[in-house]
Design a protein that fits this description.
This protein is of the alpha/beta class. It is built from four helices and 19 strands. A seven-stranded mixed beta sheet has the order 2-5-8-13-16-18-19.
Length: 184
């Protein structure tokens, strides 16, 4: 498969140019959507869910995302059924970010699919890349946790408040700390 656009390269995790006009336009669309969504706290839940569907790749029934809510693009975020995100969450979705059914996410959680090259030449050239983040069903993520690029969280896992998740979390595990480690 030939990746012909910067969007294709970015979404697939390949190196891309974040200054490309198509990506700048997509960022502007996401910023406009966020401004409307984040001003929607007085709307009935059904109307807010419709707005959510307009800004994200897919939204299962019964999702609640409390504003303010921040994304890079929104178009790479998929929420399962009855997902809950509390106030002030950030999702940097240069690659797919998938959140499974009934997952509950505390306030100020940050989910990063965006990454940067480790070599100075690529960083100086402005090249970026991403790695998908996948969160299973029935996961609970405590407030202020950070999930780093490429992390997979298994079904039923618990991530303690303030934890920094740098590697995969097995199904049913509880992880805490910085870096997050399995407890118990």
């Amino acid at each position: 498969m030939t990746m012909t656009t910067e969007w294709d390269r970015m979404s697939s995790g390949a190196p891309y140019d974040p200054a490309a006009a198509e990506l700048q336009a997509a960022l502007a669309r996401a910023a406009a959507w966020m401004a409307l969504y984040n001003a929607s706290d007085a709307l009935p839940p059904g109307e807010r869910e419709s707005m959510l569907r307009a800004g994200l790749a897919s939204v299962g029934p019964g999702c609640v995302v409390r504003p303010p809510f921040f994304v890079d693009y929104g178009a790479n975020i998929r929420l399962g059924e009855r997902v809950f995100l509390n106030f002030d969450c950030v999702i940097l979705d240069v690659c797919p970010v998938t959140i499974g059914d009934r997952t509950q996410i505390g306030p100020k959680v940050q989910i990063y699919a965006a990454d940067h090259p480790r070599d100075i030449e690529s960083r100086a050239a402005g090249i970026e890349f991403g790695r998908p983040v996948t969160i299973g069903a029935d996961v609970w993520i405590g407030g202020g946790a950070i999930l780093c690029p490429g992390v997979r969280v298994g079904d039923g896992a618990i991530i303690g408040a303030g934890s920094v998740v740098t590697r995969d979390v097995p199904p049913g595990a509880t992880v805490v700390g910085n870096p997050a480690r399995i407890r118990g």
